[in-house]
Amino acid sequence: MGNWLNYKKTIILSTLIALPLFLIGWNEKQSSIKRWGFFGHKRINRIAVFTLPPEMFGFYKEHIEYLTEHAVDPDKRRYAVEGEAPRHYIDIDHYAKDGENPFEIVPKRWNDAVQKFSEDTLQTYGIVPWHVLLMKKKLQRAFEAKNIDLILKYSADIGHYIGDAHVPLHTTENYNGQLTNQKGIHGLWESRLVEINAENYDYFVGKSKYIKNTNEHIWKALQTAHFALDSVFRFEIEVTKDLGTDKKYSFEKRGNTTVRVYSYEFSQEYHRRLNGMVERILKNAIASVGSFWYTAWVDAGQPDLSDLQNKKPSEKLLEELKSIDEEYLSGKAKGRICE
Ligand SMILES: [Zn+2]
């Protein structure tokens, strides 16, 4: 009981201290990062830490900066690693003809899906659900081995892929509105709207829960995301019509360059019509990330993480991450991105 109270106190205190700090950090970095989509991923991993039970909280809290900062490694890896891109999405509508429910057509288990469609096809149209499950296994093994590097690496990574699986535009071939003359909608939904509104969201999602069936859980998230697409596309068209195309964009200074962005007015009207969708999805993603971390730890036999406290990730891991950064800053993306 005493532990629990302490734990609650730590959460409240840490949230109060941590929130303003990372907000300042973000504003400063805003102009130096390549993509805005980073913002949401960092927030998801960071807040997921606060959903964890006391046995995990100490370790995760100690590494909260790592988990926040490296929430975006998988996106950076798209510039360094062949085969990374399909891990971030699934074009589920590719598999269905008009009126069919694609979720009834694509087998949920990897082997069944490979048998039905071939691995090449799955890789072409994205493998996010299966990659989340693979990461969960890897994280579980890292817990079993009490390998601090791998626990951190896979915790940060799985947080990213789970986040992607919740985003409607990560579940369609029309991922950037390119097929419906709505090009740019990807960044509008997952970056612009989040960036403007993130401070007004309520992030209380409660405690992480054990996920009995991880496969079903991630597919349910994808299904929810996919069925929200209708609103995502429709409201963009409606707001464009209602406000007029001349009010759709404005120009903002980013460092030394001026870039065209969706105007504040357009973005906020779109956000209003989405009726809480972005916040709801962000919260669901946070709850899922915390629950996946927790489930991997339980399935590993609940190892005592206090032995791992006050230890840092190895130089080797940090070197590896640095080289991904360098590739990212200098390289060209290998596969799909939505800048
Ligand atoms: Zn991603």
Key descriptive features of the protein:
globular; mainly alpha; 60% helix; P1 Nuclease; binds zinc ion; 339 residues; 2 strands; two-stranded antiparallel sheet
Concise account of the structure shown:
The chain is mostly helical and 339 residues long. It has 2 domains: 1-30; 41-330, P1 Nuclease. The protein has 16 helices and 2 strands.
Care to describe what's here?
The structure is a single chain. The chain is mostly helical and 339 residues long. It folds into 2 domains: 1-30; 41-330, P1 Nuclease (Orthogonal Bundle). 60% of the residues lie in helices and 4% in strands. The chain has helices at residues 2-29, 38-48, 54-62, 64-69, 73-77, 102-105, 110-117, 119-125, 128-144, 148-165, 185-197, 214-227, 229-243, 264-273, 277-299, 315-330; strands at 249-254, 257-262. Strands 1-2 form a two-stranded antiparallel ribbon. The longest helix is centred in the first third of the chain and has 28 residues, at 2-29. The protein starts with a helix and ends in a 9-residue tail after the last helix. Residues 1-36 have low confidence and may be disordered. Zinc ion (ZN) binds next to helix 5 and helix 10.
